Structures are given as C-alpha cells and as structure tokens.
Amino acid sequence: MDRRQFIIGTGAISAGALAAPSRTAHAADDVVIGVIYPLTGNGAAVGLDAKAAYEVAAKMINDTHAPIGVAMGKGGGLDRLGGAKIKLVFADSQNDPQKARAEAERLITQDKAVAIVGSYTSATGATISQVTERYEVPYISADNSSPSLNQRGLKWFFRTGPHDEMFTKGMFDFLAEIAKKTGKPAKSIALFYEDSIFGTDSSNVQRKLATAAGMTIAADIRYRASSPSLSTEAQKLKAANADVLLPSSYTSDAILILKAMNEIGYKPKAILAQAAGFQESAFMQGAGVLAEGAMSRSSFALDADKLRPAIPVVNGLYKAHNNKDMNDNTSREITALLVLADAINRAGSAKPEDIRKALIATDMPGSATIMPWAGVKFDETGQNTLCNPVIQQVFDGAYKTIWPFDLAAREAVWNVGG
Questions:
Q1: How confident is the model at residue 16 (pLDDT cuts 50, 70, 90)?
Q2: One fold for both 3-162+307-376 and 165-298+390-407?
Q3: Buried b (16+ CB within 10 A) or exposed e, 263-281
Q4: SS (HEC) of the chain
C-alpha cells in the first residue's frame, strides 16, 4: 500500500492513532476526510497539486487567521462541533480505478473517514463512488467531469463542479457567440478523445451539440490513453483541417498531440479543449510555446477578482504553499472541501447520514466561493446546478478569461475564417 497520511494544523500522527476516532465527533474530535488522488505514477503531478490544494483549504478551515470571504473562511475549525478540526488522510490511487476502489474501502473501514473527496479522473471517481455508496458515506466529486457519474441513482454522490454536458454547452455557446461577434463561424470540428469514460462521454455530447449546430464533424478520432505516439492521429487531424479541434485528453496526451502536430507542420485554426490536461501547470510547462492561443473551458477564472475578491487571497495562500497559481482543478478541489466542511458544520455532526442531509440542503451563493458560479445547490442526482463554466485562452503562457464576454479579461484571438 502506498498511502500518505496527514493531519492539517495538528501535525502528522501514526497510522495506529488514525484508526482510533469513531465516525461521530464529540466535543473537539478531529473529523476525518479521505482524499484519493494519483500521488505516484503518470498522474502524480496533478495529484500532488491536488494534495496542496486540500492542505490549503484545510488550513483555511482549521487555523486561526483573518477572515477570508468564502464559506468556512473565518477559520478556527468547525464551531458547531466545538472547534473540531478537519483531518485529511491522503490515499494514492496511482490513477488506477481498482486501486482507487481499494483505497476508498481502506479509508472508510480503517481510518474511519466520514466522507471522501477526489479524484481527478472520472474512471477512478466511478469506482470510489461505488464503494462510498455501499458503505453509506458521502463522496464529493471535486473534479470528475463525466456526466454519467451522477446518473446512476446514487444517494451518496455529490459533485460541486460542472460535468461535461454543462461544460460542452458552454463551449458551443461560446462558438455561437464568437461567430456572431466576429462574423467568422466555425463550420467544422474535429473530435479527439481518449478511450476512457471521460473521453467517451465528452465526445458523445460534443457530437450531439455539433450536429444540432449544423457543424460538420471533419474528424472523429478515439485514441488509446497514454499512447507512446500520436503521430498517426496528428496526420488525420491535419488531413481533416477542421475549423476547431476539440480535444478531451489528460496531461501527457495533451502535450504529445501538440508536439506531434507541430512535427508535421500543422497548427489548428482553433483549439478548444475539454480542460483536463490542458488546464494543468505541467501541460503549460511541457507544451511551452505550442500552447499559445489554445482555448479551454474552465470552472475557474483567476482573473475574476473583481467578481470574487477572495480569489487573490486564496491564490496567495496556495501559491505560498505550492509555488504556483491555482488552476481549474485546484480551485475546484479547494471549493469542494470548503463546501463539504460547511455541510459538516451546519449538520453539527460528523455522522455520514447527517452530512448527507446537510449537503442536500446546501444553498451557497457564488459570492461565498472563489468560483465564477451562481452558487452551489445540488439537485436530486447530487449535481450542483449553479456551476456555470468560462472559456479561457493562453496568452504568454497563462490562461486568461475570454468568455462570457462581460467577464473577459482579454479579447479572444479567433483565427477561424481568417
């Protein structure tokens, strides 16, 4: 087992001591939250950034500090549980759905986690949520985006961020509005997606919306995730020469396809990514100048500080802890833990059923978050219905918000039809 355990704000303790607390908090007992991410293997960079995000969120909840203008930003612990602290126990999924399943069970049965958050890939989110459903423990899906995850009739599944149908609707709304604004409509698209639940679900909704918009699907390319080469796929994309390339890829593949296209002298007119790897700092470092001009949907807008004044404060804490700015994924992870802690505090209890009821009753305004969302409110499937996405574009190595236009920090560079 490769598992890492931490208590934020009270120091690390032994595995034996971690097993001691029961699920019900009394007085100031710590409240154990399991956190499952790839901490080793091909997703380690993403997982370690996630770990830093949760540590920062836990410090915001637990530590004594000047108030921060977000839910649970007053610090000092969970006041309705006698000042109890959130204790995070991290587990390494190694980006393997079956390893994630085993670690979820271990966190619940051995570490007595009263809720679990995770987990980056939708494939691991699917297996984790099966375990939490069986043990009747809430699973907070911070950054899993497959639409199918909340369509399985689960009682204990809650997703704070958008799923790919919501994201993709935003992407196609942007395509319609940029066409109207510039007079240069996108007439054809190329679908490029990995062979996972994420890639399959993403491409399905993109295919549907493209057809509804009257766009030609010039290429429909499904590839094997973490492929050693994408040169054949790059040739197919060049031959299709669509107005917009819509990739659904994690980090290594996102870098690889840009390099493969560059090697054959092909630069798409426009790239509009389903985030994932395209929003990671490792992507920006690995792709370098090849990322310039690429667009991506996002849950988060670092440059929306006028709308959300807490963004610079929270980003400053994250940057001090992890030497980089928040991004789409890390902002969702921080938000997920704050929403969960708010529910636990409102419940005044660390019993999983009480937490579930409090999550169902969540009605958080967007102003209580760092996100450009209308708020957080879960429907009967556990999906937040108020998490509207944004579109961003890379300028000088950093993403800037370009849509919605009234929130834009930069004017979009739109090369379609030019």
A1: very low
A2: yes
A3: eeeeebbbbbbbbbbbbbb
A4: CCEEECCCCCCCCCHHHHCCCCCCCCCCCCEEEEEEECCCHHHHHHHHHHHHHHHHHHHHHHCCCCCCCCCCCCCCCEHHHCCECEEEEEEECCCCHHHHHHHHHHHHHCCCCCEEEECCCHHHHHHHHHHHHHHCCCEEECCCCCHHHHCCCCCCEEECCCCHHHHHHHHHHHHHHHHHHHCCCCCEEEEEEECCHHHHHHHHHHHHHHHHCCCEEEEEEEECCCCCCCHHHHHHHHHHCCCEEEEECCHHHHHHHHHHHHHCCCCCCCEEECCHHHHCHHHHHHHHHHHCCCEEEECCCCCCCCCCCHHHHHHHHHHHHHCCCCCHHHHHHHHHHHHHHHHHHHHCCCCHHHHHHHHHCCCEEHHHCCCCCCEECECCCCEECCCCCEEEEEECCEEEEEECHHHCCCCCCCCCCC
**Cα 122 off chain centre by:** 10
pLDDT at residue 66 is higher than 70: yes
Q: Cα–Cα distance between 71 and 5 in angstroms, integer?
A: 25
Q: Whole-angstrom Cα distance, residue 67 to residue 353? A: 30
As a whole number of angstroms, the distance between CA 170 and CA 403 comes to: 9
Mean pLDDT rounded to a whole number for the chain: 91
What does CATH list as the number for 165-298+390-407?
3.40.50.2300
CATH superfamily of this structure's domain 3-162+307-376: Response regulator (3.40.50.2300)
| pLDDT tier at 3, thresholds 50, 70, 90 | very low
Q: What is the pLDDT of residue 137?
A: 98
The per-residue pLDDT for 17 is 30
- Does residue 94 carry a pLDDT above 80? yes
Contact 386, 377 (CB under 8 A): yes
Tokens (6 digits) for 308: 């959300």
Q: Which tens digit of pLDDT belongs to each residue from 288-328?
A: 999 999 999 999 999 999 999 999 999 999 999 999 999 99
The mean pLDDT of 393-409, rounded to a whole number, is 93
